[in-house]
Amino acid sequence: MQILLTVAVPLIGMVGIALAGRWPNLREGVTLLTATVNAVNVWTILPVVLEGGRPAVSVIEILPGLPLKFEAEPLGMLFAAVAATLWIVNSIYSIGYMRGNNEVRQTRFYACFALAIAGAMGVAFAGNLLTLFIFYEVLTLSTYPLVIHKETEEARRGGRTYLGILIATSIGLQLPAIIWTWHLTGTLDFVPGGTLAGKVQGVSAGLLLALYMYGIGKAALMPVHRWLPAAMVAPTPVSALLHAVAVVKAGVFTVLKVIVYIFGLDLMSSEPMTNWLVYAAAITLTLASLIAMQQDNLKRRLAYSTVSQLSYVILAGALGTAMGVVGGGMHIAMHAAGKITLFFCAGAIYVAAHKNEISDMKGIGRVMPVTTFCFMIGALSVIGLPPLGGSWSKMLIMVGAADAGFQIMIGVLILSSLLNVAYLMPVPLRGFMFRPPDAGDGPVKVREAPLPCLIAIVITSALCVVLFFGAGEIYDMLLPITEPGGGRR
Protein backbone atom coordinates (compact mmCIF):
# COMPACT_ATOMS: atom_id res chain seq x y z
CA MET A 1 0.00 0.00 0.00
CA GLN A 2 2.82 2.43 0.79
CA ILE A 3 4.41 1.82 -2.62
CA LEU A 4 1.08 2.59 -4.31
CA LEU A 5 0.73 5.72 -2.17
CA THR A 6 3.98 7.11 -3.59
CA VAL A 7 2.11 7.49 -6.88
CA ALA A 8 -1.34 8.21 -5.42
CA VAL A 9 -0.33 10.99 -3.00
CA PRO A 10 1.07 13.34 -5.71
CA LEU A 11 -2.03 12.68 -7.84
CA ILE A 12 -4.34 13.56 -4.93
CA GLY A 13 -2.20 16.62 -4.27
CA MET A 14 -2.53 17.66 -7.92
CA VAL A 15 -6.32 17.70 -7.56
CA GLY A 16 -6.06 19.68 -4.31
CA ILE A 17 -3.73 22.22 -5.94
CA ALA A 18 -6.16 22.70 -8.82
CA LEU A 19 -9.11 23.19 -6.45
CA ALA A 20 -7.16 25.71 -4.34
CA GLY A 21 -6.02 27.72 -7.35
CA ARG A 22 -7.99 30.84 -6.39
CA TRP A 23 -6.20 31.12 -3.06
CA PRO A 24 -2.39 31.23 -3.58
CA ASN A 25 -1.51 30.69 0.08
CA LEU A 26 -3.76 27.64 0.31
CA ARG A 27 -2.53 26.31 -3.04
CA GLU A 28 1.09 26.52 -1.96
CA GLY A 29 0.21 25.06 1.43
CA VAL A 30 -1.35 22.06 -0.32
CA THR A 31 1.80 21.74 -2.43
CA LEU A 32 4.10 21.69 0.60
CA LEU A 33 1.82 19.34 2.53
CA THR A 34 1.61 16.91 -0.40
CA ALA A 35 5.37 16.94 -0.92
CA THR A 36 6.00 16.36 2.79
CA VAL A 37 3.49 13.50 3.10
CA ASN A 38 4.94 11.86 0.01
CA ALA A 39 8.52 12.15 1.28
CA VAL A 40 7.60 10.69 4.69
CA ASN A 41 5.84 7.80 2.96
CA VAL A 42 8.85 7.11 0.71
CA TRP A 43 11.31 7.24 3.59
CA THR A 44 9.25 4.77 5.65
CA ILE A 45 9.78 2.17 2.90
CA LEU A 46 13.56 2.58 3.15
CA PRO A 47 14.19 0.44 6.30
CA VAL A 48 12.53 -2.58 4.67
CA VAL A 49 14.78 -2.26 1.61
CA LEU A 50 17.89 -1.76 3.77
CA GLU A 51 17.09 -5.03 5.55
CA GLY A 52 17.11 -6.83 2.20
CA GLY A 53 13.36 -6.81 1.59
CA ARG A 54 11.93 -6.36 -1.89
CA PRO A 55 8.23 -5.57 -1.31
CA ALA A 56 6.16 -5.76 -4.50
CA VAL A 57 2.56 -5.33 -5.58
CA SER A 58 0.70 -6.02 -8.84
CA VAL A 59 -2.26 -3.76 -9.62
CA ILE A 60 -3.80 -5.12 -12.82
CA GLU A 61 -2.78 -7.53 -15.57
CA ILE A 62 -2.68 -5.47 -18.76
CA LEU A 63 -1.78 -8.44 -20.99
CA PRO A 64 -1.37 -12.12 -20.05
CA GLY A 65 1.81 -12.28 -17.99
CA LEU A 66 2.30 -8.50 -18.12
CA PRO A 67 0.91 -6.81 -14.99
CA LEU A 68 1.18 -3.21 -13.89
CA LYS A 69 3.66 -4.04 -11.15
CA PHE A 70 5.60 -2.09 -8.55
CA GLU A 71 8.61 -3.22 -6.51
CA ALA A 72 10.96 -1.49 -4.10
CA GLU A 73 14.63 -2.36 -4.64
CA PRO A 74 17.79 -0.39 -3.71
CA LEU A 75 18.34 1.54 -6.94
CA GLY A 76 14.71 2.59 -7.23
CA MET A 77 14.60 3.36 -3.52
CA LEU A 78 17.51 5.77 -3.92
CA PHE A 79 15.90 7.53 -6.89
CA ALA A 80 12.54 7.79 -5.13
CA ALA A 81 14.13 9.17 -1.94
CA VAL A 82 16.07 11.80 -3.92
CA ALA A 83 13.04 12.89 -5.96
CA ALA A 84 10.62 12.95 -3.01
CA THR A 85 13.01 14.87 -0.73
CA LEU A 86 14.00 17.45 -3.33
CA TRP A 87 10.34 18.03 -4.22
CA ILE A 88 9.89 19.64 -0.79
CA VAL A 89 12.91 21.89 -1.27
CA ASN A 90 11.96 22.73 -4.85
CA SER A 91 8.44 23.66 -3.69
CA ILE A 92 9.86 26.09 -1.11
CA TYR A 93 12.09 27.60 -3.77
CA SER A 94 9.23 27.80 -6.28
CA ILE A 95 7.14 29.92 -3.90
CA GLY A 96 9.85 32.58 -3.74
CA TYR A 97 10.71 32.37 -7.44
CA MET A 98 7.19 32.32 -8.89
CA ARG A 99 6.00 35.16 -6.64
CA GLY A 100 9.18 37.20 -6.89
CA ASN A 101 9.11 36.94 -10.67
CA ASN A 102 5.32 37.51 -10.93
CA GLU A 103 4.90 34.39 -13.05
CA VAL A 104 1.50 33.64 -14.58
CA ARG A 105 -0.33 30.28 -14.59
CA GLN A 106 1.10 29.31 -11.21
CA THR A 107 -1.71 26.86 -10.42
CA ARG A 108 -0.99 24.91 -13.63
CA PHE A 109 2.69 24.97 -12.72
CA TYR A 110 2.22 23.41 -9.28
CA ALA A 111 -0.35 20.88 -10.53
CA CYS A 112 1.84 19.66 -13.41
CA PHE A 113 4.79 19.51 -11.04
CA ALA A 114 2.84 17.12 -8.79
CA LEU A 115 1.86 14.98 -11.78
CA ALA A 116 5.51 14.83 -12.84
CA ILE A 117 6.51 13.61 -9.39
CA ALA A 118 3.84 10.89 -9.62
CA GLY A 119 5.45 9.83 -12.89
CA ALA A 120 8.90 9.81 -11.30
CA MET A 121 7.64 7.65 -8.41
CA GLY A 122 6.13 5.20 -10.91
CA VAL A 123 9.45 4.98 -12.74
CA ALA A 124 11.38 4.51 -9.48
CA PHE A 125 9.22 1.65 -8.19
CA ALA A 126 8.40 0.02 -11.55
CA GLY A 127 8.48 -3.77 -11.17
CA ASN A 128 8.84 -4.53 -14.88
CA LEU A 129 9.69 -2.83 -18.17
CA LEU A 130 6.05 -2.28 -19.12
CA THR A 131 5.29 -0.34 -15.94
CA LEU A 132 8.49 1.64 -16.30
CA PHE A 133 7.67 2.55 -19.91
CA ILE A 134 4.15 3.75 -19.00
CA PHE A 135 5.34 6.07 -16.24
CA TYR A 136 8.34 7.17 -18.32
CA GLU A 137 5.82 8.52 -20.85
CA VAL A 138 3.69 10.08 -18.11
CA LEU A 139 6.78 11.97 -16.96
CA THR A 140 7.45 13.23 -20.48
CA LEU A 141 3.89 14.42 -21.11
CA SER A 142 3.41 16.01 -17.68
CA THR A 143 6.57 18.12 -17.97
CA TYR A 144 5.73 19.51 -21.42
CA PRO A 145 3.36 22.20 -20.01
CA LEU A 146 6.12 23.17 -17.59
CA VAL A 147 8.66 23.60 -20.38
CA ILE A 148 6.30 25.88 -22.37
CA HIS A 149 5.15 27.66 -19.20
CA LYS A 150 5.88 31.17 -20.53
CA GLU A 151 4.01 30.35 -23.78
CA THR A 152 6.26 32.59 -25.87
CA GLU A 153 7.30 31.53 -29.35
CA GLU A 154 10.74 30.61 -27.99
CA ALA A 155 9.14 28.51 -25.24
CA ARG A 156 6.89 26.71 -27.72
CA ARG A 157 9.83 26.03 -30.01
CA GLY A 158 11.84 24.62 -27.13
CA GLY A 159 8.82 22.57 -26.06
CA ARG A 160 8.46 21.06 -29.53
CA THR A 161 12.11 20.00 -29.48
CA TYR A 162 11.72 18.62 -25.97
CA LEU A 163 8.59 16.61 -26.69
CA GLY A 164 9.60 15.58 -30.21
CA ILE A 165 12.94 14.04 -29.25
CA LEU A 166 11.72 12.31 -26.09
CA ILE A 167 8.60 10.82 -27.70
CA ALA A 168 10.44 9.83 -30.90
CA THR A 169 13.21 8.03 -29.02
CA SER A 170 10.91 6.23 -26.59
CA ILE A 171 8.39 5.09 -29.21
CA GLY A 172 10.84 4.52 -32.05
CA LEU A 173 13.70 2.88 -30.13
CA GLN A 174 12.89 2.02 -26.52
CA LEU A 175 9.54 0.35 -27.25
CA PRO A 176 11.01 -1.94 -29.98
CA ALA A 177 13.78 -2.86 -27.53
CA ILE A 178 11.19 -3.84 -24.92
CA ILE A 179 9.25 -5.91 -27.47
CA TRP A 180 12.47 -7.62 -28.57
CA THR A 181 13.29 -8.42 -24.95
CA TRP A 182 9.81 -9.93 -24.49
CA HIS A 183 10.32 -12.02 -27.64
CA LEU A 184 13.70 -13.33 -26.44
CA THR A 185 12.79 -14.06 -22.82
CA GLY A 186 9.01 -14.25 -22.48
CA THR A 187 9.10 -11.80 -19.57
CA LEU A 188 9.65 -8.12 -18.87
CA ASP A 189 10.46 -8.56 -15.18
CA PHE A 190 13.62 -7.12 -13.67
CA VAL A 191 15.70 -10.16 -12.76
CA PRO A 192 18.86 -10.05 -10.57
CA GLY A 193 21.71 -11.15 -12.80
CA GLY A 194 19.88 -10.05 -15.96
CA THR A 195 16.73 -11.16 -17.79
CA LEU A 196 18.77 -11.54 -21.00
CA ALA A 197 21.52 -13.67 -19.42
CA GLY A 198 22.22 -16.52 -21.87
CA LYS A 199 19.53 -15.26 -24.28
CA VAL A 200 21.46 -12.80 -26.48
CA GLN A 201 25.04 -12.36 -27.64
CA GLY A 202 27.26 -10.85 -30.31
CA VAL A 203 25.86 -8.27 -32.71
CA SER A 204 22.33 -8.77 -31.39
CA ALA A 205 23.47 -7.82 -27.89
CA GLY A 206 25.16 -4.67 -29.15
CA LEU A 207 22.17 -3.67 -31.27
CA LEU A 208 19.64 -4.29 -28.50
CA LEU A 209 21.77 -2.25 -26.10
CA ALA A 210 21.87 0.61 -28.64
CA LEU A 211 18.07 0.58 -28.93
CA TYR A 212 17.77 0.90 -25.17
CA MET A 213 20.48 3.51 -24.64
CA TYR A 214 19.30 5.86 -27.39
CA GLY A 215 15.66 4.99 -26.72
CA ILE A 216 16.09 6.27 -23.16
CA GLY A 217 16.32 9.83 -24.48
CA LYS A 218 16.11 11.36 -21.02
CA ALA A 219 19.67 10.13 -20.41
CA ALA A 220 20.78 12.65 -23.09
CA LEU A 221 23.45 10.50 -24.72
CA MET A 222 24.71 12.40 -27.78
CA PRO A 223 23.26 12.93 -30.36
CA VAL A 224 19.81 12.68 -28.67
CA HIS A 225 20.65 15.40 -26.16
CA ARG A 226 19.33 18.55 -27.85
CA TRP A 227 16.04 18.48 -25.94
CA LEU A 228 17.85 19.32 -22.71
CA PRO A 229 19.37 22.73 -23.59
CA ALA A 230 16.20 23.49 -25.60
CA ALA A 231 14.14 23.09 -22.42
CA MET A 232 16.07 25.89 -20.68
CA VAL A 233 13.38 28.33 -21.82
CA ALA A 234 11.36 27.08 -18.82
CA PRO A 235 11.32 28.85 -15.41
CA THR A 236 14.25 27.92 -13.15
CA PRO A 237 12.22 25.64 -10.80
CA VAL A 238 11.32 23.61 -13.91
CA SER A 239 14.98 23.48 -14.93
CA ALA A 240 15.76 22.17 -11.47
CA LEU A 241 13.03 19.54 -11.91
CA LEU A 242 14.45 18.53 -15.30
CA HIS A 243 18.08 18.38 -14.19
CA ALA A 244 18.00 17.26 -10.58
CA VAL A 245 14.67 15.95 -9.33
CA ALA A 246 12.92 13.88 -11.95
CA VAL A 247 13.48 13.90 -15.71
CA VAL A 248 17.18 13.35 -16.37
CA LYS A 249 17.48 11.28 -13.20
CA ALA A 250 14.67 9.07 -14.51
CA GLY A 251 16.77 8.68 -17.66
CA VAL A 252 20.03 7.56 -16.07
CA PHE A 253 18.13 5.54 -13.46
CA THR A 254 16.46 3.63 -16.32
CA VAL A 255 19.86 3.13 -17.96
CA LEU A 256 21.26 1.54 -14.80
CA LYS A 257 18.09 -0.48 -14.24
CA VAL A 258 18.28 -1.93 -17.76
CA ILE A 259 21.99 -2.67 -17.47
CA VAL A 260 21.75 -4.33 -14.05
CA TYR A 261 18.43 -6.18 -14.30
CA ILE A 262 17.88 -6.73 -18.03
CA PHE A 263 21.38 -7.26 -19.47
CA GLY A 264 23.19 -8.16 -16.24
CA LEU A 265 26.73 -7.26 -15.28
CA ASP A 266 28.15 -10.58 -16.46
CA LEU A 267 26.85 -10.03 -19.98
CA MET A 268 28.01 -6.39 -20.02
CA SER A 269 31.52 -7.30 -18.87
CA SER A 270 31.99 -10.38 -21.07
CA GLU A 271 30.33 -9.32 -24.34
CA PRO A 272 32.71 -7.24 -26.54
CA MET A 273 29.81 -5.91 -28.63
CA THR A 274 28.60 -3.86 -25.66
CA ASN A 275 31.90 -1.99 -25.23
CA TRP A 276 30.83 0.71 -27.68
CA LEU A 277 28.74 2.26 -24.90
CA VAL A 278 31.84 3.00 -22.82
CA TYR A 279 33.30 5.09 -25.65
CA ALA A 280 29.98 6.74 -26.56
CA ALA A 281 29.56 7.88 -22.94
CA ALA A 282 33.17 9.12 -22.80
CA ILE A 283 32.72 11.14 -25.99
CA THR A 284 29.48 12.67 -24.68
CA LEU A 285 30.89 13.68 -21.30
CA THR A 286 33.93 15.29 -22.93
CA LEU A 287 32.20 17.10 -25.81
CA ALA A 288 29.40 18.38 -23.58
CA SER A 289 31.98 19.88 -21.21
CA LEU A 290 33.74 21.63 -24.10
CA ILE A 291 30.43 23.02 -25.36
CA ALA A 292 29.53 24.18 -21.84
CA MET A 293 32.70 26.28 -21.72
CA GLN A 294 31.50 28.25 -24.76
CA GLN A 295 28.09 29.19 -23.30
CA ASP A 296 27.69 32.66 -21.81
CA ASN A 297 24.11 32.06 -20.73
CA LEU A 298 24.34 30.49 -17.27
CA LYS A 299 21.39 28.11 -17.63
CA ARG A 300 22.62 26.82 -20.99
CA ARG A 301 26.08 26.28 -19.51
CA LEU A 302 24.52 24.29 -16.68
CA ALA A 303 22.40 22.36 -19.21
CA TYR A 304 25.45 21.13 -21.12
CA SER A 305 27.12 20.40 -17.80
CA THR A 306 24.17 18.11 -17.04
CA VAL A 307 24.59 16.32 -20.39
CA SER A 308 28.19 15.64 -19.40
CA GLN A 309 27.39 14.51 -15.86
CA LEU A 310 24.66 12.13 -17.02
CA SER A 311 27.23 10.31 -19.12
CA TYR A 312 29.21 9.61 -15.95
CA VAL A 313 26.31 7.35 -14.92
CA ILE A 314 26.02 5.78 -18.37
CA LEU A 315 29.77 5.12 -18.43
CA ALA A 316 29.58 3.64 -14.94
CA GLY A 317 26.94 1.13 -16.03
CA ALA A 318 28.65 0.35 -19.32
CA LEU A 319 31.79 -0.79 -17.47
CA GLY A 320 29.84 -3.80 -16.17
CA THR A 321 31.60 -3.81 -12.78
CA ALA A 322 30.19 -3.71 -9.27
CA MET A 323 32.08 -0.56 -8.30
CA GLY A 324 31.06 1.15 -11.52
CA VAL A 325 27.36 0.48 -10.94
CA VAL A 326 27.51 1.54 -7.29
CA GLY A 327 29.40 4.70 -8.28
CA GLY A 328 26.84 5.42 -10.99
CA GLY A 329 23.97 4.98 -8.56
CA MET A 330 25.66 7.24 -6.03
CA HIS A 331 26.23 9.85 -8.74
CA ILE A 332 22.47 10.10 -9.25
CA ALA A 333 22.14 11.40 -5.69
CA MET A 334 25.38 13.40 -5.58
CA HIS A 335 24.75 15.19 -8.88
CA ALA A 336 21.13 15.88 -7.91
CA ALA A 337 22.20 17.84 -4.83
CA GLY A 338 24.96 19.74 -6.60
CA LYS A 339 23.06 20.58 -9.77
CA ILE A 340 19.82 21.64 -8.09
CA THR A 341 21.92 24.04 -6.00
CA LEU A 342 23.46 25.52 -9.14
CA PHE A 343 20.09 25.99 -10.83
CA PHE A 344 18.56 27.47 -7.69
CA CYS A 345 21.41 29.98 -7.59
CA ALA A 346 21.00 30.82 -11.29
CA GLY A 347 17.30 31.47 -10.72
CA ALA A 348 17.99 33.57 -7.63
CA ILE A 349 20.42 35.74 -9.59
CA TYR A 350 17.76 36.26 -12.25
CA VAL A 351 15.04 37.15 -9.74
CA ALA A 352 17.21 39.54 -7.68
CA ALA A 353 19.54 41.00 -10.32
CA HIS A 354 17.82 40.11 -13.64
CA LYS A 355 21.04 38.69 -15.04
CA ASN A 356 21.32 35.59 -17.23
CA GLU A 357 24.69 36.08 -18.92
CA ILE A 358 27.87 35.14 -17.06
CA SER A 359 29.70 38.07 -18.62
CA ASP A 360 27.27 40.39 -16.79
CA MET A 361 27.88 38.81 -13.38
CA LYS A 362 31.08 40.57 -12.35
CA GLY A 363 30.78 41.43 -8.69
CA ILE A 364 27.58 39.46 -8.20
CA GLY A 365 29.21 37.77 -5.18
CA ARG A 366 29.36 41.08 -3.35
CA VAL A 367 25.72 41.85 -4.12
CA MET A 368 24.48 38.30 -3.43
CA PRO A 369 27.12 36.72 -1.14
CA VAL A 370 24.99 33.84 0.19
CA THR A 371 23.80 32.79 -3.26
CA THR A 372 27.27 33.01 -4.80
CA PHE A 373 28.91 31.07 -1.94
CA CYS A 374 26.30 28.33 -2.27
CA PHE A 375 26.90 28.27 -6.03
CA MET A 376 30.55 27.61 -5.27
CA ILE A 377 29.62 24.73 -2.94
CA GLY A 378 27.40 23.16 -5.62
CA ALA A 379 30.09 23.65 -8.26
CA LEU A 380 32.80 22.03 -6.12
CA SER A 381 30.52 19.05 -5.47
CA VAL A 382 29.90 18.58 -9.19
CA ILE A 383 33.65 18.91 -9.78
CA GLY A 384 34.26 16.22 -7.15
CA LEU A 385 36.27 17.98 -4.45
CA PRO A 386 36.16 16.58 -0.87
CA PRO A 387 34.42 17.02 1.52
CA LEU A 388 31.52 17.19 -0.93
CA GLY A 389 29.40 14.30 -2.16
CA GLY A 390 30.48 14.27 -5.80
CA SER A 391 34.00 13.17 -4.84
CA TRP A 392 32.84 9.68 -3.76
CA SER A 393 30.81 8.81 -6.84
CA LYS A 394 33.55 9.94 -9.23
CA MET A 395 36.15 7.97 -7.31
CA LEU A 396 34.08 4.77 -7.41
CA ILE A 397 33.48 5.14 -11.15
CA MET A 398 37.25 5.42 -11.62
CA VAL A 399 37.71 2.26 -9.54
CA GLY A 400 35.12 0.57 -11.74
CA ALA A 401 37.05 1.64 -14.85
CA ALA A 402 40.23 0.13 -13.43
CA ASP A 403 38.40 -3.10 -12.54
CA ALA A 404 37.08 -3.35 -16.11
CA GLY A 405 40.50 -2.76 -17.67
CA PHE A 406 39.50 0.64 -19.12
CA GLN A 407 42.32 2.62 -17.50
CA ILE A 408 42.06 5.22 -20.26
CA MET A 409 38.65 6.16 -18.87
CA ILE A 410 40.29 7.27 -15.63
CA GLY A 411 42.13 9.88 -17.68
CA VAL A 412 38.89 10.89 -19.42
CA LEU A 413 37.14 11.37 -16.06
CA ILE A 414 40.03 13.44 -14.70
CA LEU A 415 40.01 15.60 -17.86
CA SER A 416 36.26 16.08 -17.50
CA SER A 417 36.64 17.19 -13.88
CA LEU A 418 39.25 19.76 -14.95
CA LEU A 419 36.82 21.02 -17.59
CA ASN A 420 34.18 21.22 -14.83
CA VAL A 421 36.52 23.62 -13.01
CA ALA A 422 36.97 25.69 -16.17
CA TYR A 423 33.27 26.28 -16.83
CA LEU A 424 31.82 26.39 -13.28
CA MET A 425 34.34 28.25 -11.12
CA PRO A 426 34.49 31.49 -13.15
CA VAL A 427 31.00 32.37 -11.87
CA PRO A 428 31.87 32.59 -8.13
CA LEU A 429 35.43 33.80 -8.78
CA ARG A 430 34.31 36.70 -10.97
CA GLY A 431 31.51 37.31 -8.52
CA PHE A 432 33.76 37.76 -5.49
CA MET A 433 36.93 39.20 -7.06
CA PHE A 434 35.36 42.16 -8.87
CA ARG A 435 33.26 45.07 -7.72
CA PRO A 436 29.86 45.39 -9.38
CA PRO A 437 30.22 47.77 -12.37
CA ASP A 438 27.26 49.88 -11.20
CA ALA A 439 28.41 50.15 -7.54
CA GLY A 440 30.74 53.11 -8.00
CA ASP A 441 33.10 53.80 -5.08
CA GLY A 442 30.51 53.50 -2.33
CA PRO A 443 29.50 50.47 -0.27
CA VAL A 444 27.90 47.58 -2.14
CA LYS A 445 24.26 47.02 -1.23
CA VAL A 446 23.34 43.38 -0.62
CA ARG A 447 20.25 42.34 -2.60
CA GLU A 448 19.56 38.64 -2.17
CA ALA A 449 16.64 36.72 -3.68
CA PRO A 450 13.37 36.24 -1.71
CA LEU A 451 13.73 34.32 1.55
CA PRO A 452 12.11 31.06 0.34
CA CYS A 453 14.70 30.93 -2.46
CA LEU A 454 17.55 31.47 -0.01
CA ILE A 455 16.24 28.81 2.38
CA ALA A 456 16.11 26.25 -0.43
CA ILE A 457 19.59 27.16 -1.69
CA VAL A 458 21.15 26.81 1.77
CA ILE A 459 19.44 23.43 2.31
CA THR A 460 20.65 21.91 -0.97
CA SER A 461 24.20 23.26 -0.60
CA ALA A 462 24.31 21.77 2.92
CA LEU A 463 23.06 18.50 1.44
CA CYS A 464 26.20 18.40 -0.75
CA VAL A 465 28.26 18.19 2.46
CA VAL A 466 25.90 15.78 4.23
CA LEU A 467 26.09 13.35 1.30
CA PHE A 468 29.87 13.22 1.62
CA PHE A 469 29.64 11.92 5.18
CA GLY A 470 26.59 9.76 4.47
CA ALA A 471 28.03 8.08 1.37
CA GLY A 472 28.74 4.85 3.24
CA GLU A 473 25.04 4.21 3.84
CA ILE A 474 24.26 4.73 0.15
CA TYR A 475 27.14 2.42 -0.80
CA ASP A 476 25.88 -0.33 1.52
CA MET A 477 22.34 0.00 0.16
CA LEU A 478 23.39 -0.23 -3.50
CA LEU A 479 26.01 -2.97 -3.27
CA PRO A 480 23.47 -5.88 -3.16
CA ILE A 481 22.15 -5.02 -6.64
CA THR A 482 25.50 -6.08 -8.09
CA GLU A 483 25.16 -9.59 -6.62
CA PRO A 484 23.39 -12.41 -8.54
CA GLY A 485 20.65 -12.84 -5.91
CA GLY A 486 19.92 -9.13 -5.63
CA GLY A 487 18.51 -9.42 -2.13
CA ARG A 488 15.64 -11.14 -0.34
CA ARG A 489 12.18 -11.11 -1.97
| Tally of alpha and pi helices | 21
Order of strands in the sheet with the most strands? 1-2
Sheet having the most strands: 2 strands, antiparallel
Helix content: over 70%
Proportion of residues in extended strands:
under 5%
Number of extended strands: 2
Question: Given the C-alpha coordinates, what overall shape results?
Answer: globular
Let me know the average pLDDT: 91
Distance between the termini: 17 Å
* Helix-strand makeup class: mainly alpha
Which regions are unreliable across 5 or more consecutive residues at pLDDT < 50? Answer: none
**CA radius of gyration:** 21 Å
What is the H-and-E element order?
A: HHEEHHHHHHHHHHHHHHHHHHH
Number of domains: 1
Family: Belongs to the CPA3 antiporters (TC 2.A.63) subunit D family.
Subcellular location: Cell membrane; Membrane
InterPro entries: CPA3_Na-H_Antiporter_D, ND/Mrp_TM
Keywords: Cell membrane, Membrane, Transmembrane, Transmembrane helix
